[in-house]
Write a structure and sequence with these properties.
Elements: H1 4-23, H2 28-56, H3 67-71, E1 80-86, H4 93-99, H5 104-114, E2 128-134, E3 137-143, E4 148-154, E5 159-165, E6 169-178, H6 183-189, H7 194-204, E7 219-228, E8 234-246, E9 249-257, E10 263-266, E11 286-289, E12 309-312, E13 318-320, E14 325-332, E15 338-344, E16 349-359, E17 368-369, E18 374-378, E19 388-395, E20 398-400, H8 418-433
Antiparallel strand pairs: 1-2, 2-3, 3-4, 4-5, 6-7, 7-8, 8-9, 9-10, 11-12, 12-19, 13-18, 14-15, 14-17, 15-16, 16-18, 16-19, 19-20
Helix pairs in contact: 4-5
The structure holds zinc ion.
């Protein structure tokens, strides 16, 4: 777990090398071929050494392949020229193609030849044209979206167009780190892109309060994919399996791609990483007033938004926290009377409970509460005409209707998919368990 630092350096090195190779763009293929040649020559050299040593037992066989030959293999390649042009706002395909060196009439021929595949009048600012000249061939690429691109080619006369999948490279990586200062700094030291870190936070957001519960000595391990486009830009990252140790508590999550192609994170046992909230903070209840966002009427003046749900219940009925969290307010709050606000472990969510008769014993600001824990009792404190609980659910501070709140699926892996789940996730979990060296072989897919 202490190797994160070294890993950081090695990752940077790899990135730098790749970027350098990419920036040369058109020469990446010859470079790759050159590398293949180096490998072949290297293998031949080793065989020569082995056979030489086996036959004669002498050291002289090692010199049978001069090193200079390894360095500059002669591989004839047609020279390639690569030009890239960003679409500017206000551009037409014609103006952008002219900047790539096409004559206006050639640009028109390209635009009309593309029509059957993709209408180049739809080009968008910020996207790119790429022109590759190689021998008598000219290729033209236009990035349509994350997945696809237009590829046009001519051998000097007619243009042909196809729509093709954008080439992408996926690197499978493993990283681990120790929290010393902040999660983000530890993650950056471990070489994680901030997008991967955000994904990590999202996955464990229902179990760990990342703003308050992080401690020095907490640690994480993560197996993830980084996806690059053909120019070497990081397009996205995806976590396959992750572990977080928070205050001695170990949490693990693994990705599962379901039969229908959707995916979700589960514990290794197949339970959802997402936790549901209780449907209501009271066990037996009746809704007496619903959520409405009607604003104060400019003429009539008395229509008010009701940003919560009122549950009518006898005075003294226990009120329960709908999810795990921490009390951020407990006390008297104007018309709300005795009021409790809970910030949930998933910090985007908070709930509020008003008009309480009294609070449960021992609670104070900062207290941790568990789902279902009794936090107070129904009353009519503040502005209330009868005993009821006014309950609010806020997402990033904005009150939402708790009754129509889209409930995130928190179901376990279906029983009939468990075998598939185990088969898919076992290798990733095993990889996470292994204390392998920090720099993992890079898998190009
Ligand atoms: Zn109310």
């Amino acid at each position: 777990m202490t190797h994160a630092f070294y890993r950081d350096f090695s990752r940077q090195g790899q990135n730098r090398n790749r970027r350098r190779g990419r920036r040369r763009g058109g020469r990446s293929l010859p470079l790759r071929r050159a590398r293949l040649w180096l490998v072949l020559i290297g293998v031949a050299g080793m065989l020569a050494v082995l056979f030489g040593a086996g036959l004669s037992g002498s050291q002289s066989a090692k010199a049978s392949v001069p090193h200079e030959e390894w360095l500059e293999p002669e591989i004839p390649q047609p020279a390639q020229q690569v030009l890239r042009e960003a679409i500017r706002s206000g551009d037409t395909a014609i103006t952008a193609l002219e900047r790539l060196g096409f004559t206006p009439s050639e640009a028109y021929r390209i635009a009309s030849a593309s029509k059957s595949v993709y209408a180049l009048r739809d080009i968008r600012a910020g996207h790119f044209f790429k022109r590759v000249d190689q021998g008598k061939e000219t290729h033209l690429y236009y990035t349509i979206d994350d997945q696809t691109r237009l590829h046009m080619v001519t051998h000097g006369k007619d243009w042909q167009a196809i729509k093709e999948e954008r080439p992408s490279l996926t690197r499978r990586l493993y990283a681990q780190g120790h929290i010393e200062d902040s999660l983000f700094e530890a993650a950056a030291r471990a070489g994680l892109d901030s997008r991967t870190t955000m994904n990590l936070v999202d996955i464990f957001a229902w179990d760990i309060d990342f703003a308050r519960d992080m401690r020095t000595g907490d640690s994480f391990r993560v197996l993830y994919d980084e996806r690059y486009d053909e120019e070497g830009n990081l397009m996205g990252t995806r976590i396959l399996a992750a572990e977080f140790v928070n205050q001695g508590h170990r949490y693990r999550a693994v990705l599962y791609v379901k039969k229908d192609g959707s995916f979700e994170y589960y514990t290794p046992e197949g339970k959802s990483m997402r936790k549901a909230y209780l449907r209501a903070p009271l066990k037996f209840t009746r809704i007496s007033s619903r959520f409405t966002l009607r604003r104060k009427h400019p003429v009539l003046g008395f229509t008010r938004a009701h940003r919560g749900v009122d549950y009518a219940a006898p005075s003294g009925t226990p009120v329960r926290a709908v999810g795990d969290g921490r009390i951020v307010f407990i006390g008297w709050k104007g018309g709300y009377g005795r009021f409790i606000q809970i910030q949930h472990v998933n910090r985007a969510h908070s709930t509020a409970y008003a008009h309480l008769r009294r609070f449960a014993r021992g609670l104070h600001r900062g207290s941790k509460v568990r789902q279902g824990q009794v936090i107070g009792y129904v009353g009519m404190s503040g502005l209330a005409t009868g005993p009821h609980l006014h309950f609010e659910f806020r997402v990033r501070g904005v009150a939402v209707n708790p009754l129509t709140l889209k409930r995130t699926p928190s179901k376990p892996v279906p029983a009939d998919e468990m075998a598939r789940f185990r088969q898919q996730t076992a290798p990733w979990l095993a990889r996470l368990e292994q204390q392998l060296p920090d720099v993992m072989a890079v898998a190009w897919e």
